[in-house]
Specification:
Strand content: 25-35%
Order of helices and strands: HEEEEEEHHEHHEHEHEEHEHHEEH
Number of domains: 2
CATH class of the largest domain: Alpha Beta
CATH architecture of the largest domain: 3-Layer(aba) Sandwich
Number of strands: 14
Strand order of the largest sheet: 2-1-5-6-7-4-3
Structural class: alpha/beta
Bound molecules: S-adenosylmethionine
Oligomer: single chain
CATH superfamily of the largest domain: Vaccinia Virus protein VP39
Helix content: 25-40%
Length: 374
């Protein structure tokens, strides 16, 4: 039995293709990736014989946690029987497990689905020569895909809970620089919007080092209560220490925004700043319902987060440099989630730090909720 070939069919490719692949790979690894990464990803696999890692650009189709790739070259043999791979998808590296499907009917069905979604002309992007005019019938597809296989990659959630910050000691100096000396002023603006009163119960979600929670504690006074929660143990420790230094009571807990350890209807206000983009997008709905659940009827919510730059190039650069989901953080999407969670009176705006946007909303008062439900 011969060992499977390692490199991506290098010998079979003309030099012009190799050069083009190199250019595409460079762009996909750079801040300019949005120009190509809608349809192209980088696939990294290990050669069975050499153990070396190879990276190639591939056209792909994504359905949630599954990515489909086609090949009529030889590299896929390294994935036979299943193999761990890594994809660079829209600028983000995501590990996954690849399975190869070689049987004709599966390949034809997958190609048909690909063409239906991307358009009949997309056959070229997966090395298929097809007659012009719509998606061909199964007989033609069977013939055209004779040397193709389907590689299905099941993505592993890179951050099942969120992007945690473990470098708590360096966080405050960095934030001070980002706010250019106006941090306390901007945080005070946000707390003003929550209209905190002495005696209020406030929860700061994904509190980081607890700067906002400590200011909130001063506003609600000894008759009030401030809770702060973060999924990073280092941040929790830093927030506890900051509250002690400031001489205020803050109940700091380690936990997830998606599963708040607090009873229903228990908070007058819930706040979360600079953290929404740290929570995985597919958990945003759960986080929004949790925030709503713990608010008392009539309670107020404020979420403030980085504003996505309008220009796609700047957005690509910001996403690349910050390693954040700046590009996918759209206030409109948050509005929709909050409405679905049952919040009303949504208002949005920008703080005096122009890169920081906020959304406020309110849980309907008990009578209104009952009316809505009934
Ligand atoms: C950029 S910091 C913001 C900290 C703070 N709110 C502020 O305004 O400075 C984002 C925080 O979210 C936390 N985090 C990420 N995912 C989380 C989750 N699912 N639940 C709770 N905290 C989370 C991180 O550990 C980090 O401390």
């Amino acid at each position: 039995m011969t060992a499977p070939p390692d490199p991506p069919a290098a010998g079979a490719q003309p030099h012009s293709h190799l050069l083009l692949n190199r250019v595409i790979t460079t762009v996909l690894r750079s801040a300019l990736h949005p120009l190509l990464s809608r349809n192209l990803a980088l696939l990294t696999y290990r050669g069975r014989r050499t153990g070396r890692a190879y990276t190639i650009p591939v056209s792909y189709q994504r359905d949630g946690g599954q990515v489909t790739v086609f090949s009529n070259q030889r590299w896929w043999r390294n994935l036979r029987g299943g193999a761990r791979v890594e994809l660079r998808l829209r600028g983000k590296r995501v590990p996954g497990r690849a399975e190869v499907h070689e049987d004709g009917p599966t390949v034809v069905a997958a190609v048909r689905d690909y063409l239906a979604r991307k358009g009949p002309g997309a056959g070229r992007t997966i090395n298929l020569r097809l007659p012009d005019g719509g998606i061909p019938d199964d007989r033609v597809l069977t013939e055209a895909t004779r040397s193709h296989v389907v590689v299905r990659i099941t993505l592993e959630a890179a951050e099942p809970h969120g992007v945690l910050i473990r470098w708590a000691r360096g966080y405050d100096p960095l934030v001070r620089i980002a706010f250019a000396g106006r941090e306390q002023r901007v945080r005070a603006e946000l707390l003003d919007r929550l209209a905190l009163r002495p005696g209020d119960r406030v929860l700061d979600i994904a509190c980081g080092t607890g700067t906002l929670a400590v200011s909130a504690a001063a506003r609600v006074g000894p008759a009030g209560w401030v809770g702060a929660l973060d999924a990073s143990p280092e941040m929790v420790q830093a927030a506890r220490e900051k509250a002690v230094r400031a001489g205020v009571n803050v109940d700091v807990r380690e936990g997830l925004a998606q599963a708040l350890p607090f009873p229903d209807d228990s908070m007058d206000a819930v706040v979360s700043t600079l953290a929404w983009h740290h929570i995985p997008p597919d958990s945003h709905g759960t986080a929004a319902s949790e925030m709503t659940r713990v608010l008392r009827p009539g309670g107020r919510l404020l979420i403030a987060d980085l504003k996505a730059p309008a220009n796609p190039l700047t957005r690509g650069l910001a996403t690349h440099l910050l390693g954040h989901r700046v590009a996918s953080h759209e206030t409109a999407a948050v509005d929709q989630l909050l409405a679905t969670a049952g919040l009303v009176e949504q208002r949005r705006g920008t703080t005096s730090a122009r890169w920081l946007a906020f959304v406020t909303a309110r849980k309907p008062a008990a009578g209104m909720a009952a009316t809505r439900a009934g």
